[in-house]
Amino acid sequence: MARTSAGEKPPGAAVSRGGGPDVLRVAAIAVAAAVAGLAAGLVLGGAAAEQVIPGLSDAGTVTRWGLPLSRTAMNLAAAVTVGALIAAAALLPLEGGGTGSGKSAGGRTAGPRLGADAIGYARAASWTAAAWAAAAAATLVFTIADVLGQPVSQVIVDSKLSSYAGQISQGTALMLVVLLAVVVALLARTTTTPAATFGLLVLSGIALLPPPLTGHSASAANHSVAVTGVALHVLAVAPWVGGLAAVGAHALARRDRLEVMSARFSRMALWCYVIVGASGLVNVIARLPDPAELLSTNYGRLALGKIVAFALLGWFGWWHRERTLPALAERRPGAFTRLATVEIAIMAATVGLAVALARTAPPAPATEESAVKSLIGYDMPPAITPGRLAALGQFDFFFAALVVALGGLYLAGLVRLRRRGDRWSPGRTAAWYLGLATILVVTQTGIATYSPILFSVHMVQHMVLNMLTPILLVLGAPVTLALRALKPAAVRGDRGPREWLTAALHSRAVAIIAHPAVATVIFVAGTFVLYFTPLFEAAMRNHLGHIAMSAHFLLAGSLFFWVLIGVDPAPRRLPYPGRILLLFVTMPFHAFFGIALMNLGQPLARGWYTAVDPPWGASLLSDQHTGGAIAWGFGEIPTFIVLIALAFQWYFDDQRQARRLDRQADRAERRRAGRPAGAGEPVAEDDELAAYNARLARLAERDERSRGS
């Protein structure tokens, strides 16, 4: 890319008008590729020519083709919206905040703000989010017509849209998408700060999830794995596809800072590629346990086509890193533009193929599912024993991926510190990985197998995730490690991962949530609200609800113990006597909770536990009383661990304070060594011990004068 000349716009300027036709041309190519991939998938998968069974109503050809077309448009608009917001918040350098030039109306230094190009991408996200909402609304209409087996015109005329939209899961999901996309479209028109843009990006990520989670994943043979796999898949595909679209548009429009933007996207795309590959493999295994079905079934052949496209896109990514990024560094963007155009077209075709795959029914299970397997995803296990609790495990993809991610990031931080020659406490490392090990114990072993069918085992899982794992993770000091390991942003005033983390720690939201009173209420009240309302049974009946419940246990416990014994920076710190008092005030509530469970005359979530009641188990009420006893007795373990941790922290804090005062006194003594010391000698403000001694000397001198007079 040529350097800015006298006739060109400076860095950060708006879009060059000369690149508009090129952007539209590539967009048209991408849309055509998506439609071609969709049409090929529908024809090869058999969804384009569904056999109409006599006696059953048919929605017609318009719905048969309109539904996948509208869903493809919805997915493309969603990806482009996410990509535009990522480009605005992360791929382009920010302006202000740290430059020292910007001042707010109150005289304070202005924070980071989006540059001109970034604001342009935020405004573009407003338009694409509106298109996203419109496509989702069209998909909603076609979905209801498809479910009812009636033409679209009849659904609209008979006012069945409002009647059935909230009664089917797909309709509810699409209504959520419309609502969230409209919010993003409205707010993105006025967004000028990176924090607000990041908030819209999070909102867009949430809006991506409802439709795929109500499709085949919810009814797959191993739905617990499929649900997590499809969520990760969608959350990685959207920034990958949308980010490439944003970088390609940036290059075609001949904007500045293309080399910075493409380098950042390349790093993000590598992680997206890994996540897409891993989650896609898990999804294929969950739906096609027999590898031969990749060739013998329509669903398998379409999945195989996606695998080939995925491998081809991996080659494009390697080529970008090896060839086009160095070319961009030498200001030669032509090769990148040509290659990116082809890559965007392949990505769009793959999106169309994915929609066709979603319209194709996966192979039916070889054997009929039992009622229990349809609820929990696997057959009823044998009678519980200590050995089976340890060995008869179930793979939970969500927590397995969480542990791998947290363990890998922590290890990467340790490696960076070691290469730099810095030291890190082995005790903190041991605490962190021991905490991750406890997550694996209660989510991957027999405890996870028996927890959906026995309340007592579920309570063991709850107590560990809520009251033991968080203590170990908090003592591992992951935020402190991240702040030491992450490098500052290369561009002054910009925000990299370290700056985003620092901004989050100093945000008003964290200050409110991390207030000791708020953290305590979340920690205590969350348990009572969950178990003594219908929320508990609703969470047990849905795998996403079960994940949300377990994640709440983990996050609420981590927040509370961060306030008590956290090593990481926090908005406010209680004095050590206050921390001990808070611990002894809070822990009895868990004992009261256990006692309340043991005294209930009716079992909780009766409908769920009646449906999965094992023939070898105790009565529902007896098992619930056992769970209450576990909750009552388990509280002693974290209390003991926290007291020991507080004692050591208090002792070492006193030692650090004493050493600091000694160093100040030594510095003051060395400063006075070169001249006579007098009672009225000025003392350094930071020398507390010397100031105290000088004050005593002045008091003694005043007493002597008063006695002499």
TrEMBL record:
KW Lipid metabolism (keyword) present: no
Membrane topology summary: Multi-pass membrane protein
Cellular component, GO, one term: plasma membrane
Localization annotation: Cell membrane
Positions of transmembrane segments: 26-53, 73-94, 129-148, 168-188, 195-213, 225-247, 268-286, 298-318, 339-358, 397-418, 430-455, 467-486, 507-532, 544-567, 579-600, 629-652
Domain Copper resistance protein D stretches: 262-357
GO biological process: copper ion transport
Keyword Lipid biosynthesis: no
Pfam families, per database record: Caa3_CtaG, CopD
Coiled-coil boundaries: none
Keyword list, A-Z: Cell membrane, Membrane, Transmembrane, Transmembrane helix
InterPro entries named in the record: Caa3_assmbl_CtaG-rel, CopC/D, Cu-R_CopD_dom
Region (Disordered): 663-687
The name this protein goes by in its record: Copper resistance protein D
Species whose genome carries this gene: Actinomadura viridis
